[in-house]
Amino acid sequence: MNSGLKAVWAVRNLRILVLARFISNLGNGLAPVAVSFGVLDLPGGNGKTLSLVMVANFLPLVLFTLVGGVIGDRLPRAALVGATDVLLAIFVMGNGLALITGNGSITLFVIVGAVGGFLNAVI
Question: How many CA atoms, within 13 angstroms, populate the side-chain half-sphere of residue 119?
Answer without folding.
Answer: 21
